[in-house]
Each structure stands twice: as structure tokens, then as C-alpha cells.
Amino acid sequence: MAKKLSVTQVRSGVGKKFKHRRTLEALGFKKHQQTVVHEDNPAIRGMVRQVSHLVRVEEIS
Fold first, then answer.
1. Burial, 20: exposed, middle or buried (Cβ in 10 Å; 0-12, 13-18, 19+)?
2. CA dihedral 30, 24, 52, 11 (to 10 degrees)
3. What CATH code is carried by the domain that includes residue 35?
4. Is the pTM of this model over 0.85?
5. How many structural domains comprise the chain?
């Protein structure tokens, strides 16, 4: 069974770089403090790494 990542936005994207705000959108965030679940793959890991200062990540087995 594939692992999943639970990604929670813990800091706002307001005032951050345009690229970081677009990455938050691509991850599926619409609101602050929202949690989204994604399959664990290199593309998602790369997006999470780019905005690691704005999100918290937990692995779900």
C-alpha cells in the first residue's frame, strides 16, 4: 500500500514569493490551517520542500 502525506499549512502565504504562493495553490490549499492528503511521490516531496517553512508534514501509513 502506498504511503500518504498529510500536509498542513501552518503559516500564511501573504507577503511570500509568488512562486511559493503558487506552490501552495498547487498543493490544494485554499485556507490557512487547512490540511490536505497526497500520495507520497517525488513531485509532491519537491513541492513540500519548496514551502517547508509554511507547512507541516506527517506520513500516514
1. middle
2. -40
3. 3.30.1390.20
4. yes
5. 1
Q: How far apart are the first and last CA of the chain?
A: 8
**Residue 13, helix vs strand vs coil:** coil
From the list 26, 24, 23, the residue with the least C-alpha distance to 8 is 24
CA 22 centroid distance within chain: 11
Q: What is the span of the domain harbouring residue 52? A: 4-60
**pLDDT tens digits, the chain, 61 residues: what are they?**
689 999 999 999 999 999 999 999 999 999 999 999 999 999 999 999 999 999 999 999 8
What CA–CA distance (Å, rounded) separates 14 from 7?
18
